[in-house]
Amino acid sequence: MSEPLLTCDAALRKAAADIDSDSPRLDAELLLARVTGWSRTAFRAWPERALSPVQRTEFEALVAQRAAGQPIAHILGEQGFWSLSLQVNEATLIPRPDTECLVEAALALPLTAQARVMDLGTGTGAIALALASERRHWRVQATDAIPEAVAVARANNQRLGLSVSVSQSHWFENLPPQRFDLIISNPPYIATEDHHLGCGDVRFEPATALVSGRDGLDDLRIIVNSAPEWLVRGGWLVVEHGFDQAERVRALFVTAGFDAIESRQDYGQQDRLTLGRNPGHHSTIPGNEGVNDDAQR
Ligand code: GLN
């Protein structure tokens, strides 16, 4: 005897009860939408619609993965960020909504139409691709230290038809000398011993994308200290950091000689990003003559 047919509504209720996350019902709907090809609105409009036995088996397998803690983004292989759908895998950080606040901050800066932009530690390419999608004439580059992440960012760039150039580099290490109008980064910033590393999606994300020494600031120190050598006069640095790191990150910006230093909050009203301007001196790098005045505001 085959099992009785299950309606969408019954399937979603059972799945939501099995999933232990911040958003069990949403998670269940996303998984059922993947299996059936139906929209999430359809589940509300036609809750009595029955699942075929194949759909039911597939759905239960995905729910079991989610119930075991697998991030939704890994099960679906994609994550929405800004207006884009990005391919995600185990080699990259799963883009977070709060990182969109960096994109917003960058878009609001006084930059020229052809600004040269560098996204350090791009992962899926999220920040670089969002900026490139909004500013078609910006010359956006991105780096990541992990070859698999470089491949994911390149694939996302291609799929979205954008023109971000992605290279493999640990921060500035492998970059040819050049100067940018904007350097932006969501680096790892969690302290090695942070207990949050034992809960939620971060358990399934690469430590290289999350953890940065005893105080979580090892990578931010490298980025902030090196950035002035890679910025034009008047160029901007924008970085994401932990909710309790703003003061220490602003101090790093001060030590590195930045001005116009400011921290901003994320969607949860937590200090999440800091930005500053490089007062610096005129670049003498060949090929960059004249462009600095352009970016000077
Ligand atoms: N904001 C992420 C988290 O706390 C961490 C991202 C990062 O380290 N860059 O889950």
3D architecture notes:
With 297 residues, the protein is of the alpha/beta class. The protein folds into two domains: 8-69, Ubiquitin-associated (UBA) domain (Helicase, Ruva Protein, domain 3, Orthogonal Bundle); 78-296, Rossmann fold. Helix content is 35%, strand content 19%. It has eleven helices and eleven strands. Strands 7-6-5-8-9-11-10 form a seven-stranded mixed sheet, sandwiched between helices. It is elongated, with a radius of gyration of 22 Å. Residues 93, 96, 186, 188-190, 202, 210, 240 line the site of glutamine.
Question: Could you give the topology of this structure?
Answer:
Layout: E1 6-7, H1 8-18, H2 24-36, H3 40-45, E2 50-51, H4 53-67, H5 72-76, E3 78-81, E4 84-87, H6 100-107, E5 116-120, H7 126-134, E6 139-144, H8 147-160, E7 165-168, E8 180-185, H9 218-226, E9 231-240, H10 246-255, E10 259-265, E11 271-277, H11 291-295
Parallel strand pairs: 5-6, 5-8, 6-7, 8-9
Antiparallel strand pairs: 1-2, 3-4, 9-11, 10-11
Helix pairs in contact: 1-2, 2-4, 6-7, 9-10
The structure holds glutamine.
Glutamine binds next to loops.
Terminus-to-terminus distance: 75 Å
Cα shape: elongated
**Percentage of helical residues?**
25-40%
The helix tally amounts to 11
Using the coordinates above, name the CATH class of the largest domain: Alpha Beta
The arrangement of helices and strands along the chain is EHHHEHHEEHEHEHEEHEHEEH
Content-based structural category: alpha/beta
> What can be said about the biggest beta sheet?
7 strands, mixed
In the sheet with the most strands, the strands line up as: 7-6-5-8-9-11-10
How many extended strands?
11
CATH homologous superfamily assignment of the largest domain = Vaccinia Virus protein VP39
